[in-house]
Specification:
With 539 residues, the chain is an all-alpha fold. Helix content is 76%, strand content 0%. The radius of gyration is 26 Å and the shape is globular. 43% of the residues are buried.
């Protein structure tokens, strides 16, 4: 009952619904263009399927694009669509070579994430046409040459252009929010002592896809794509071991429910039914809307869409029910196993890194010159963004914590206390941070001149630095916390003008300091840098 109420009220202001409308406008416009091209150029129906798959994913990711990303998409996506069309032919004519090329293409698109946010978004565009290869049923469309290749590139370019118009209009009119700037989303790169997370994820994906191709082609030669697609969906975007475990479970349960629902409705539509096409788009819209509520809803709806698509091609879902369920289960197991066994990314390490990044932006806000309004607003936006990213990472852990597991299992699989409480503590800093930003914008000179504010700012900034060092298990200099406030305090005898904003700022700083105490208790104190260690380090 509780989950039902949450499902009915998860989007009270309709923000996700408006985003879904923008995405579906991109999908339907691209679909109409693909139908026109298919009819005029005499292309195969898989060109339309590829266009819809690309547009549905593009409509979701393009919300974060800026002008540079859109110009990049005009080059990357058409080339990737042409390559995907050629890859589809290669897989049908030379399976081993095609499978290897698919694995290398997907893993390479993940590996390039190590070069920053723009490379990450470009890699996502490369993957979209490759996934479309798995959607069309094997053997449903013959591989008869390369006439679709150029048109696939043209259709992908049209999808980018149309999506840009739709998204730009929606953002300008306030229908959907504008994306954060690159200055907000960019995270400073830490020194690389080990393999980066993107390299680990690329190797995990390569292992999962290789095993999925091998097992799928041997067990289900005509329906191997279900195993490969599930392994990809479980591994893609998995931020940690806990994340991939939850995603694998949701993918399996949701896909099973979607397959059963599509099987029950399989007799209602015949091959090439226009009604089935309408239902497919309706279910796809529901999947896009409910994705923010739970991955299980998205997995179930997308699986139902694929089942209806197979029915449209003349393959009855009822005849393939057991095969699909088995393929989904095997693919999920392979994806989870690869993420847990091949250079795993520990959930604790990810949470520590995201928490430290949020504290870094909080320190920027406290240490910046409050008379520089642009720098203050940038630091506040960075803090809000990084707290949101931490919440995304910890969301699967909340699901694991709420799962009714046996005591012997829960002792090993339930998340540690800092996993859930760190994001809560930082979220409680959000309102005080907003108050500081507003006050700094209204009375910057007053707050800068006040000695009590200056001392408290320095003390809280030093406290945040100490917690960051504890998170990174780095020693803190013995006298750093005491020295900082004295450096920023005003000279004796100086007076500050009275202003009502000063008590509000002191209260906000006190609230932030209290939440830093919570984080300090969660992560523990940093190692003490002794005088001998200091002499060794500096000598």
């Amino acid at each position: 009952m509780k989950s039902t109420r949450r499902a009915l009220h998860f989007d009270p202001r309709g923000a996700h619904l408006r985003t879904t409308a923008v995405t579906m406008a991109t999908v339907l416009g691209t679909y109409g263009w693909a139908l026109l091209v298919e009819h005029e150029a005499g292309l195969r129906v898989d060109s339309v399927v590829q266009a819809v798959v690309i547009a549905s994913a593009l409509g979701r990711v393009q919300r974060l694009f800026d002008r540079t990303d859109r110009l990049s998409a005009c080059v990357v996506l058409p080339c990737a669509a042409a390559a995907g069309t050629e890859l589809s032919t290669l897989i049908q004519q030379h399976p081993l070579t095609g499978d290897a090329a698919f694995v290398v293409g997907v893993a390479g698109a993940i590996w390039v994430r190590r070069f920053g946010a723009r490379a990450t978004r470009a890699g996502t565009l490369v993957v979209l046409p490759l996934i479309a290869v798995l959607v069309v049923p094997a053997g449903a469309v013959p591989a008869d040459g390369h006439e679709n290749t150029a048109w696939a590139a043209v259709t992908a370019l049209a999808a980018v252009a149309w999506g840009t118009v739709v998204t730009w209009t929606a953002q300008r009119t306030g229908l959907v929010p504008r994306p954060p700037s690159a200055k907000v989303t960019t995270v400073p790169r830490a020194p690389r002592r080990r393999l980066t997370a993107s390299t680990r994820m690329a190797l995990q994906m390569a292992a999962a896809l290789t095993a999925a191709f091998a097992i799928g082609r041997n067990l289900w030669p005509d329906h191997w794509a279900w195993v490969v697609l599930t392994a990809f969906l479980v591994c893609s975007g998995a931020r940690s071991r806990g994340d991939v475990l939850v995603k694998g479970a949701w993918r399996t349960l949701g896909a099973a429910a979607g397959t059963l629902a599509a099987t029950a409705a399989s007799g209602e539509f015949g091959p090439r039914s226009n009604t089935a096409v309408v239902v497919i788009f309706v279910v796809l819209a529901v999947a896009t809307w409910l994705r923010e509520l739970s991955y299980a809803y998205w997995a179930g709806c997308v699986t139902a869409v694929l089942s209806l698509l197979y029915d449209w091609f003349g393959q009855s879902p009822g005849d393939l029910l057991h095969t699909r369920l088995a393929g989904i289960a095997v693919g999920a197991v392979l994806g989870i196993a690869a993420s847990w066994l091949v250079l795993p990314i520990r959930t604790e390490a990810v949470i520590r890194a995201r928490t430290a990044a949020a504290l870094s932006s909080l320190g920027e806000l406290l240490e910046t010159d409050w008379r520089d309004g642009r720098a203050v607003r940038l630091a506040q936006a960075r803090f809000a963004y990084r707290v949101e990213q931490l919440a995304i990472v910890t969301a699967p852990m909340r699901i694991l914590a709420a799962a009714p597991l046996p005591r012997a299992v829960s002792a090993r699989w339930h998340p540690d206390r800092f996993t859930l409480r760190s994001v809560t503590a930082l979220r409680r800093c959000a309102d005080p941070v907003d108050d500081l930003t507003d006050a700094a914008g209204s009375a910057p000179d007053t707050l800068t001149a006040d000695p009590a504010v200056a001392q408290r700012r320095a003390r809280v900034a030093a406290h945040a630095l100490t917690v960051r060092r504890a998170i990174g298990r780095r020693p803190a200099p013995p006298s750093a916390a005491e020295a900082a406030p004295q450096e920023l305090s005003r000279a004796p005898g100086a007076t500050a003008p009275a202003d009502g904003s000063v008590p509000a700022v002191l209260t906000a700083l006190e609230t932030i300091d209290a939440q830093l105490d919570v984080l300090s208790a969660l992560f523990g104190p940093p190692p003490v840098l002794t005088s001998d260690a200091t002499a060794t380090a500096t000598g």
